[in-house]
Specification:
The chain is built from twelve helices and no strands. It is an all-alpha fold.
Length: 226
């Protein structure tokens, strides 16, 4: 069954990502001692066979990601490894790097993959970028859920943390522990307009407010004394 194309925030065809590419294809020439012509023939045969799987029941879950990387200038074999490796393990078919090399890259072993990773650290960087990119698909939903929860905080204590997080992000809420720490530092020394005794009293008051707030915000289990 075809897999829908992911809506990544990063554009793999952008010039900054194209600059990560190194031309490290045709590893058979160095690793297996075949001629460049034979290596190119084998590479093209593997690429064509893989792309023919698109839209069939044998299509890898990562084929759309592979095409994006190829459009961004990555050699197809490196793109194949990056696409496969950046998927969650449950979607990483075949299961091993060795099987990937033999089944899809048309290579006799996965030694070429180790060579690419050693010579171009950008491969691991691209894998990490792709692994985190999908988080941004849910960014708008997460903010909406935060706002919805914040609005319910006045009626349901279970949503208090939504309101607290919202106000921390907007800069309208300073935790009492942080305020107490600032006051204590002021009392310990440094330039300030209040005398030490006043600041110490304020710090103590803030600390007591913090404890009272923690005690009052802790929900009682059903049947407990209130």
């Amino acid at each position: 069954m075809p897999v829908s194309k992911p809506h990544y925030v990063i554009d793999l065809s952008d010039e900054q990502y194209k600059q990560m590419v190194l031309d490290l294809d045709l590893p058979e020439v160095e690793i297996e001692g075949v001629t460049p012509e034979e290596a190119r023939t084998r590479s093209e045969a593997g690429r064509s066979a893989l792309l023919l799987l698109k839209g069939t029941g044998d299509q890898p879950t990562w084929i759309e990601r592979l095409e994006q990387l190829m459009d961004g200038g990555w050699p197809w074999r490196q793109a194949c490894y990056i696409a496969w490796s950046s998927m969650p393990k449950a979607d990483r078919k075949p299961e091993t790097q060795e099987e990937l090399a033999k089944q899809y890259l048309n290579l006799n072993s996965d030694r070429a993959i180790s060579k690419w990773r050693r010579k171009n650290p950008a491969i691991e960087t691209m894998i990490a970028l792709l692994q985190s990119a999908e988080l941004w698909d849910y960014r708008a939903d997460s903010f909406k859920n935060l706002i919805d929860g914040m609005k319910k905080a006045g009626d349901d204590y279970k949503f208090f943390n939504h309101l607290k997080l919202y106000m921390e992000m907007s800069g309208d809420y300073v935790p009492l522990t942080q305020l107490a720490a600032v006051l204590k530092r002021k009392a310990a020394g440094g330039p300030h307009e209040m005398d030490e005794e006043t600041i110490a009293m304020l710090a103590q008051g803030v600390e007591e407010l913090r404890r009272d707030s923690e005690n009052s915000s802790t929900p009682h289990a059903e049947g407990d004394e209130k």
